[in-house]
Every structure is written in C-alpha cells, then in structure tokens.
Design brief:
alpha+beta, 17% strand, 853 residues, disordered C terminus
C-alpha cells in the first residue's frame, strides 16, 4: 500500500513528490502573534494611556500644537516598541530553526540523517535507543525495542514492541505492539519501521496534544522586571502628582503643571525596559548559539550566571569522542595498533616487531567478535572510512578493517538473532548469532571487571584453558595497566556453544582486551582553570574505571575528589540532589536516555547535540552543538554578561529618570518655573533614553567577569545597595542639570534660554552616565572599548543641536539656539557630577588591580 522497498527505501524524486502532496511532518509550531496584533498591543500599556491623557488635556486646554506633538510621540513610541519586539521575534524564530528534530531514514539504499519534517509515508526509518520516534510507523524489526508512550497514552510504564505480533484489526492504541508513534521515546533496543502517517495525520496530530503544550512563558527575569516596573509606576505617579500640587501652590498655571506631571510620569517610567530585556535575552541567545550553545528554555540564561558547579561527562565533552583503538591485549601479550581514527590501514606491532594479524588466529578471533557485537556502521569511500553510530563501536570496526576483515560480510555470515543492549546496570552488550556452520554462538563485550567475572575460560592459542584466580588477577592487572595510561578498556568474550535462548551469560571464554584512546579536546584544560578562577567547581563524570578516569583527570588539572568514575545515571541524579542540598547551582551534562532525570533535576541541564539522544536533548535547557566542555564555560561567561548588562541598563535608566524628576521637583519647590516643558520631557523620553540603553545592552564583558564569584541566584535585579546608589547618583546628576539651569537664569532670567539650557543638559547627561554605568568597579577608560556608547553620545549631541537649531522643531519644543559659551557651560555642568562619581568609584576600589591583570 505504501509503495516502498525495505532494502532501498524511497527514491529522492518520489519522496519529494509525496512531501508536496502531504506537506511537512509537523504537528504544531510556535504561533507568534500576528503583525496587526503585535502593532495593536503597543497601544495597551499604561504609558500609552498617559500619553493619550496628556494629548487630550492639551487639546482641551487649547494647546493643539502640543496635543498633535504628543500624538506624534505616541506613534513613535509604538513604532519603537513594534520594531524591538519584531527584531526579538525574528531572532528567536531563527534559533528555533536550529533546533529542528532529525531522523535516520533509508533513501535510495543508503541510511541518511535528515530533518524529521521531510519524512513522508513510505519512508523506512531506523530507531535507536534515546531517539524520538519521528513519525507514526509500522514496525518491521524490533530487537529489544521498548517505547515510552506516556506523552501519547498517559501510560507511565514502558511498552515492549514486537514487529511480528499478530493483533486484531481493532486494537486500542496503548496495545498496538506492532506500531510506534510520533512524539514517543525509544528507551531501549532498536527498530526498523515504515512510516504510515506524518504531520496532522499522526495520532499525536489528531489529538492535538503538541499544540496544547505550546504557549508563551515569561521567564523569572522578565517577571522580576515586570514587578519592578509596576512598583516604579506607583512611585512615579505619586511623585509626579506631588510635583503638580507643589507647582500650583507656587503659582504655576494649572494646565501647565498637569501636563508637566503627566509628561514627567511618562518620562519616569522606563517603559522600554521590558523590550530591552527581550532584546538582551534574544541577543544573548544568538551569541550563545554562535559559540555552540542552543538555549531551549529562557530561564537557563539567567541561571548560567549563578552556576557554582559544572558536572561534566568526560567522553565527548572533555575529550574529542573520536575513539581510536591503539592496543589489543591477548593471551600472548599486548599488540599496538597504528593508523588514524578513519584510516583503513595501520600496522599491528608486538614485542618482536610488526605482526601480520592474518597469521594470528587469536587477534582475528578477538576482532571478529568485536565487529559482530556492534551496532555501529562504516563505509569506505575516497580512501577513508565514514563512520556511523557510537564512536567506541565504530573504532572497533575500523580496527577490524585494518586487520583485513569485512564487517558487513561478517554480519551476513554470522547473522544476529537477538541481542541484549548495553545498559548502565549490566555494563555489557551481548548478541546471539548463528555461525557460518549453522551453530549458535554468544558474543559479549563490556566492562573488564564484569566480563572477567562472567568468564570461566581464557583463550590460549588454539585451546581453551580454565581460568584460575591467579589468571583473573593477571587479567585485571593488565586492565589496570592499560587504564593507567588513560585508555578506555573493553573486554571481549564468547561462548561458542551457547544456546539461542540462554541469557545467563555465564561460562564465557575470555578473548582479550581492547584499549581505546580519546584525545582531550583543545581548550578544555584552560576552560577548567577559568572555572576555578570564577569560583566554579568542575566535577568530571565518566563510566570508565577509576584508573582511566584519574589518568585523564590529571592531564586536565583536576583534583582527585573532582573525578567520579563508574558513574551511572542514578549516581548523577544523586550527586545533583546532594550538591543542591548544599546550596549549589548545578549545571549537568548528559547524552543518554537515562540521563533525562538528572538533566531535568539540574538547575541547568546540558545535552550533547552531536552524540546525544533525542530524549536527553528534549530534557535539557541547553544543547551543545559541538559537545565541548569549553562551550559550557563560554555559556556561563555569556550568562554573566547578559545579567551584568541588564543591571547596567537598569542603573542607567533609573538614575537618569530620577535626575529628571528631582531636577523638576527641586526647581518647583524653590519657586522657580519647571526647567523642562512637557514636550521637551517627551523628547528626552523617546529619543535620549534609547541609544545609550542599547549601547549598554551590547557592552563587552568586563575583563574580570570570570574572576568574580557566582551571583546569588535569589539576588534581585535592583538590590538595596544598587537602589541606594541610584538615589544618590540621581540627586547628584539633578544638581548638575540645575546648575546649568541656574547659570542660564543668572545670565538672562527665566525664559526660553534657561529652559533650553536645562533641556540640553538633561540630554547630554545621558551618554556620560551610560559610560559611568559600564562598571561598578572600574572607570570606563580601563574597560574594553564600547564604540556604541560614543556613537550614541555623538548622535544625541547632533540630534539635540538639530532640535534647537531647526526652526520648525525648535518652535514645537519651545527651544532656542544656544551660543558656544552656553554649550561649554552646559557640558561642564553635566560633566562635574559624573566626574565626582568616577572619582568616588576609583577611591572605593583603589586596592583592586587594573583590568586584565
């Protein structure tokens, strides 16, 4: 019915035709708000209502020009908000595209990895432990296949699948042992199936579960910002109401003070802060993605800056996961194997020189079993070997090819009947095969201690010898010697007369050891040292034996207590819970199905993108596209930078807004006219705040960002200490603005010149304060250059000159041109408070070393 072929699969042209016919294999996508809804939402905030109230009030009081200007400001504000959200949405959409699920399918006789969205009915798909089922499929083979169907049926127990089962035509979904379904997870075994339905035609698509699970969620940081904004609105409205009352009591016109109070409230509320947070997180996600870390859950970005412990897998994360077999240990001694990880040629060298493996039955027997008890694949093209599957198993196939064996031919002559997949509990893998002569054989590979314990005999030349306790100790000593060189050691055994149903795996004949090397990744040693400097502990986790783990750990510079060997997934979970009970913030790496609980339980779950399973990736907060430990450290640094830059923006916005309120309130309290008019306040709010805030969000990392201790995870964005500094700095900045205003009044009295001077002073104080806010410890001249700050300063100065010099705009803003002397005095008036702040900062941190030391 499906018009496909088991051995060859679909042709590319036929698959493309079916894809056009049935559509992509998707059952739900994140549905963003439509553009018109996004635009409409810009007019629903309290800020917009305040602007509308100001426009209506101005119009009712006969100030039509002001009313029109406020409406223009309203549209500008909406346009800026729309553009900011649209930019953040595009960034996140591109990130989601990087997380496209993948599938293994057979097309035109070859197994290819492809986007799951491109699967069509009739495709032959391969299922592996740890992968997600990419579509609804009828099973053709199912050795040891167990599926978690809880997401579809609600049943918590795994389901054993059986391709050859005979079921009634009407069978409940939860009992269909011959079928697998989209969205379920492969827990164990492997499978081969033909796709019967994709997309909305799948069981999951019909139920609509995936769509129901989707939805926008705010992060703790966004909720913190939202709560901070609400409290600030209440405070700003109270202060602005007080300003209006005091102004009226001092004889100011009622309409002017009402309009000033509303405009001041608009200026006091940093309505751009939520948008800045969204941009900061989106920009941070992109920077992380460029470094090889894809963030699946936004709160992970916030938690990164608080990380105190990184628990990392050794293989593939600290090492290259590019295994190459370098030693064979058989009864006659140790043989060294040369050649690269993907080279089909390599010398076998024993104690007496080069050995021809074809003349050594013990070597050929060992490598034959290693190639058969194996789920990896290898193809020879262009003089090199192209590997598929587990790197360790692939390395065994490469070694077999170097010895002149053909793994594919072996698999045909020794067909596999059943298998016992490797598990962290048994620590071995076994297969039950037919021999070329028609007999049965049991083949085993696994941890040396386990295989030696299950072995009753050892292979000596062409005969079997019963193992004595002395023999066992000698074998284990050989294992320890190999492991002491930092090699990963596997043991291989078989039972030639084993029955097809005998799974006790006892009375084995020990064949030898296989020792593999996995080079340490470049940069990992430096990354661990960087973590230590940042107050972050690194714990290396590995399933390898202690000697191997310690040898690698020493090369990485780790202490003995930071090395955990023979770690099972259950051990990972227990370690996380113990560390969290001590108050640690834990990042945990994992790649297997059984790692999922630990990844979920960790504060930051990190899955491997290249060699990790789908289940691990779906359970994680962050996916490493390069499986590199150094990328985790880079992500932690990036998380610290994102949080630090958000604090800089809050520091900047709140001090500048507070200086504006205090300057107006102080002037009115002293009986002077308000130094800023309503439309001038709106100009500052819409033009002046944005550029420096964006420059701070993009601020480079401070040189010592990874020399500081981790941030307390429950620390709010606005601490009492920062709040106190904001109050003091806002008051000092307002003194600078008032000094410029007072100087202008002394020169020419109250009027447009004095208002314009205060107007220019308030604008110019913004880039200076932004430069000051770049660090709480160092002056801006001791930090990495941020050209955006100076571009913002130049742009604001130019825009302000244009605003007071171009007659049409100057008339609307009630501004007049200033003389060069006025400009010089204004710059000096706003520069002295910032100079005082920098001097105080330098004095408070005078004992700290210069940046970069």
């Amino acid at each position: 019915m499906l018009g496909t072929n088991l051995d060859r699969g679909l042709k590319a042209e036929e698959a493309a035709r079916r894809l056009r016919l049935v559509g992509p294999n998707r059952v739900g996508e994140v549905r963003d708000r439509s553009l018109w809804r996004l635009a409409l939402d810009q007019f629903r905030s309290l800020v917009v209502l305040l602007l509308l109230a100001a426009a209506m009030l101005a119009t009712l009081l006969g100030q039509r020009r002001e009313g029109l200007a406020i409406l223009t400001a309203l549209l500008l504000n909406a346009a800026i908000g729309f553009g900011t959200e649209w930019r953040a949405r595009i960034s996140l959409s591109r990130l989601r595209a990087l997380l496209t699920p993948r599938a293994l399918a057979r097309r035109e006789g070859r197994v290819v990895e492809m986007a799951a969205a491109e699967l069509v009915p009739g495709d032959i798909v391969l299922l592996q432990a740890g992968s997600q089922v990419p579509a609804d499929a009828r099973l053709l083979q199912s050795p040891g296949l167990r599926i978690d169907e809880a997401a579809l049926t609600g049943e918590s127990q795994p389901v054993d699948k059986e391709a050859t089962a005979s079921l009634p035509a009407v069978t409940p979904l939860a009992e269909r042992r011959t079928m697998v379904y989209l969205g379920t997870a492969v827990l164990a075994g492997s499978g081969l199936g033909v796709v019967t339905a994709t997309g909305l035609a799948t069981e999951l698509g019909r139920i609509g579960q995936l769509v129901a699970m989707l939805g926008e969620r705010t992060t703790p940081l966004e909720r913190q910002v939202e709560g901070l904004g609400r409290r600030l609105i209440v405070l700003a409205l109270a202060v602005c109401g007080l300003v209006a009352v005091v102004g009226v009591l001092h004889g100011q016109p009622l309409w002017l003070m009402l309009e000033t109070a509303i405009s001041l409230a608009v200026a006091a509320i940093p309505e751009g802060l939520p948008a800045v947070v969204a941009v900061a997180l989106a920009a941070g996600l992109w920077r992380l993605a460029r470094r090889g870390a894809l963030v699946r859950r936004m709160p992970a970005v916030e938690a990164l800056g608080s990380t105190t412990v990184i628990c990392s897998d050794k293989t593939g994360t600290m090492t290259e996961n590019r295994m190459v077999l370098t030693r064979l240990a058989v009864d006659a001694g140790v043989i060294r194997v040369g050649g690269g990880a993907t080279s089909p040629r390599g010398d076998f060298v024993g104690a007496d020189g080069v050995v021809d493996p074809q003349t050594r039955p013990d070597l050929m027997r060992l490598l034959t079993v290693a190639a058969l008890v194996n789920d990896a694949g290898v193809e020879q093209r262009d003089g090199a070997l192209h590997l598929h599957g587990d790197p360790t198993e692939a390395a065994l196939l490469v070694a077999a090819i170097k010895a002149g064996l053909d793994p594919a031919g072996l698999a045909r002559r020794w067909p596999r009947r059943r298998e016992i997949p490797f598990s962290s509990v048994s620590r071995l893998m076994a297969t039950f095969n037919l021999t070329p002569g028609g007999g049965h054989v049991t083949l085993v590979k696994g941890a040396p201690g386990v295989v030696v314990e299950r072995s009753r005999f050892r292979q000596a030349a062409d005969r079997r010898v019963e193992l004595t306790e002395r023999d066992r100790e000698a074998l284990l000593e050989t294992n320890r010697a190999l492991a002491g060189e930092g090699l990963r050691v596997l043991a291989v055994a078989w039972r030639p007369e084993g029955g097809p149903e005998d799974e006790q795996l006892g009375d084995l004949t020990f064949l030898g050891f296989l020792a593999l090397e996995d080079p340490i990744r470049p940069g990992v040693q430096e990354a661990i040292a960087r973590c230590r400097q940042a107050g972050i502990r690194t714990i290396m986790l590995t399933g390898d034996q202690r000697a191997t783990a310690e040898a690698v750990g020493r090369r990485l510079g780790l202490e003995a207590e930071a090395i955990r060997s023979r770690v099972s997934p259950e051990d990972k979970l227990g370690l996380i819970e113990a560390l969290q009970a001590q108050g640690e913030v834990v990042a945990m790496t994992g790649d297997g199905v059984n790692d999922a609980p630990a990844l979920v339980r960790a504060d930051i779950g990190v899955a491997m993108g290249r060699h990790g399973t789908d289940v691990a990736r779906d359970s994680a907060d962050i996916i490493l596209t390069d499986d590199n430990f150094a990328t985790i450290v880079a992500a932690v640094a990036e998380g610290r930078v994102i949080y630090a830059n958000l604090r800089k923006v809050i520091h900047f916005l709140f001090t500048c807004n507070l200086s504006e309120i205090v300057a107006i309130f102080a002037a009115v309290l002293l009986g002077l006219p308000a130094p800023l008019l309503p439309l001038q306040i709106l100009w500052v709010n819409l033009v002046t705040d944005i550029l420096p805030a964006v420059a701070l969000i993009r601020d480079p990392a401070e040189p010592d960002i990874m020399e500081r201790p981790p941030r307390e995870p429950r620390q709010p964005l606005l601490t009492w200490g920062l709040g106190g500094r904001i109050l003091a700095e806002g008051a000092l900045l307002s003194a600078g603005i008032l000094s410029a205003y007072t100087w202008a009044i002394l020169q020419d009295g109250v009027g447009p010149r004095a208002n314009t001077t205060a107007f220019v002073a308030l604008v110019l104080v913004h880039p200076l304060q932004a430069a000051y806010c770049r660090s709480e410890r160092r002056g801006w001249w001791r930090l990495p250059p941020n050209r955006l700050i100076w571009a913002a300063a130049f742009t604001l100065a130019l825009a302000q000159w244009w605003a007071i010099s171009w007659a049409p705009l100057a008339t609307i803003l009630s501004a007049v041109p200033l003389s060069p002397v006025d400009w010089m005095m204004t710059v000096g008036a706003v520069a002295w408070p910032v100079a005082v702040l920098e001097a105080v900062k330098a004095w408070q941190h005078r004992d700290r070393p210069p940046a970069g030391r």
